[in-house]
Design goal:
The protein is of the alpha/beta class and 254 residues long. The protein has one domain: Vaccinia Virus protein VP39 (Rossmann fold). It is 29% helix and 17% strand. The chain has eight helices and eight strands; from the N terminus they run E-H-E-H-H-H-E-H-E-E-E-H-E-H-E-H. It has an eight-stranded mixed beta sheet, with helices on both faces. Strand 7, helix 7 (206-213) and strand 8 (217-222) form a beta-alpha-beta unit. Helix 4 packs across helix 5 and helix 7 packs parallel to helix 8 (225-239). It is globular, with a radius of gyration of 17 Å.
C-alpha cells in the first residue's frame, strides 16, 4: 500500500532533513510570486488579491511568501530545486508549474539547481479570465526536467504534451490556487509505478491525492499550518485501503 507523510514547515527548513535519493519524482506548484505587471502590484497585494476574482464568493485561506521580485524568486527557487534534486533519485523527473511571467525565471532556477530541462507542457484552462483588448489568459505551464538522462526503461509511458482542465469549483475547491484532480492524475504518471512523489508546496494536497490514488507514495511539505490541516484529511482519505487502485477523485472529502 502507498504511504504518505506531510511535514508542516518552510520548504527550505524541511528539505535538508530529507534523505538523499529517497523519492522517485518531484512534482510541485510553488507560489508564482507574480500576479502583477509592476513591482508595486506584486508586492502590495495578497495572494488572494492577485489570484482570486474580486467577485468570488468563497473565503478560501490566503497564504504568504508570494511577494518576491524576479531575482529573489529565481534565487529562492534555485535553492529549493537544488534540494529536490538531491532528494530525487537518478533519472527521476521534475514537474514544476509556472505562469508566463515567471517561466524564464523558473527555467533558469531548475537548471541552476542541476536539473536537465526537457521541455514545457502547456496547461489550457477552459475557464479563465478574459483580457479586454487582447488574448484571454487561458494557459499556465509545466516545466519538465530530469535528474540526468530520461529513464524510459523504468517507466515507458507516452504522455501528452498539452493538457486541458479547469480548476475545481464550488465545494470541490479548497485552495485558491488548487490544481485540477484530472490534470494531476495524468501528471503523476511521469513517476515510476509504486514510486514516491515529493511536493515541497503541498497546498490542499492535489499532487499527493493523485499520487496515492495511482498507487504511488507521497512526501509533502506545507508552510501554512491551517492549509496543512486541510490537506491531511484529504490525503488520509486518498490513502484509505478501500480506495486502493483506481480512485474516484471527485468523491474526495474536503
Amino acid at each position: 500500500m502507498p504511504t504518505w507523510t506531510l511535514h508542516q514547515g518552510d520548504a527550505l527548513t524541511v528539505l535538508p532533513t530529507l534523505p538523499s535519493a529517497s523519492v522517485t519524482a518531484t512534482i510541485t506548484d510553488p507560489p508564482y510570486n507574480s500576479g502583477g505587471t509592476t513591482n508595486a502590484q506584486r508586492t502590495s497585494d495578497t495572494a488572494r488579491g492577485k489570484y482570486v476574482s474580486g467577485d468570488a464568493r468563497h473565503e478560501l485561506l490566503d497564504f504568504d511568501g508570494d511577494n518576491r521580485d524576479q531575482r529573489g524568486y529565481t534565487a529562492w527557487m534555485s535553492l529549493v530545486l537544488a534540494e529536490c534534486y538531491r532528494i530525487t533519485e537518478a533519472g527521476g523527473p521534475l514537474l514544476v508549474f509556472t505562469d508566463f511571467r515567471q517561466l524564464p525565471a523558473t527555467s533558469d532556477a531548475l537548471q541552476a539547481a542541476g536539473w536537465t530541462w526537457r521541455g514545457i507542457v502547456p496547461w489550457h484552462k477552459p475557464i479563465s479570465r478574459p483580457m479586454r483588448g487582447g488574448f484571454k489568459r487561458a494557459c499556465e505551464y509545466i516545466l519538465w526536467a530530469t535528474k540526468g538522462p530520461v529513464d524510459a526503461a523504468r517507466n515507458p509511458v507516452y504522455l501528452p504534451g498539452l493538457f486541458s482542465a479547469s480548476q475545481p469549483r464550488g465545494k470541490g475547491r479548497v485552495h485558491i490556487t488548487q490544481k485540477p484532480d484530472d490534470l494531476m492524475a495524468e501528471l503523476v504518471k511521469v513517476c515510476v509505478p509504486a514510486g514516491t512523489v515529493l511536493d515541497p508546496f503541498t497546498g490542499s494536497g492535489a499532487t499527493g491525492i493523485a499520487a496515492l490514488a495511482s498507487g504511488r507514495s507521497f512526501t509533502g511539505i506545507e508552510q501554512s499550518a491551517p492549509i496543512a490541516g486541510i490537506a491531511r484529511p484529504r490525503l488520509a482519505e486518498a490513502a484509505a485501503p478501500e480506495h486502493a487502485g483506481p480512485f474516484p477523485l471527485d468523491k474526495i472529502a474536503t
